[in-house]
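Action item from last meeting closed. Structure (168 res):
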């Protein structure tokens, strides 16, 4: 009898900007992180508040953004690479211009299968010849978008799939 597929569920969030954009991450976002095994935050936390809130749901892997306080700058790297379920994931806050996302992602993370980034507050999900690029948007500051958003990344037997979740 074949073994069941190995499934990993990962919450993805970026650009929370606490406390400037609110005292906490909205419950509508946190609700989707119940039961995930990991949460990835792609920067612009501003303070540790966002990381502390997320850590109540699952372990957190994070990078610093471009507006962090001294505590975040002292403890988080600008970029990092992790492996979950045999899938290599690169994490960085700024990936450059939209027209160069794939090129820049390959330059920063040459062996990654997924690159997660933030900064623009614009959700982005696209596969570029086997490289999945994912920007969850912002859970607290929609800017020019109709909704705030987060993402869920699922890895099944080393293969990633993601979905952007628009928040009410």
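Sequence:
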């Amino acid at each position: 009898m074949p073994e069941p597929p190995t499934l990993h569920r990962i919450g993805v969030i970026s650009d929370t900007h606490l406390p400037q954009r609110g005292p906490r991450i909205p419950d509508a976002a946190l609700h989707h992180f119940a039961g995930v095994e990991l949460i990835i935050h792609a920067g612009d936390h501003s303070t540790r508040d966002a990381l502390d809130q997320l850590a109540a749901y699952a372990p957190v892997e994070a990078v610093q953004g471009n507006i962090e306080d001294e505590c975040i700058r002292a403890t988080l790297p600008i970029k990092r690479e992790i492996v979950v379920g045999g899938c290599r994931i690169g994490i960085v806050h700024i990936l450059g211009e939209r027209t160069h996302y794939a090129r820049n992602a390959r330059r920063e993370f040459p062996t990654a299968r997924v690159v997660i980034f933030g900064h623009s507050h614009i959700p982005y999900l696209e596969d570029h010849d086997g490289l999945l690029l994912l920007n969850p948007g912002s859970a607290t500051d929609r800017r020019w978008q109709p909704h705030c958003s987060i993402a869920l990344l699922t890895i099944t037997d080393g293969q990633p799939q993601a979905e952007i979740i628009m928040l009410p």
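Note appended to the action item: Residues 101-108 form the longest helix (8 residues).
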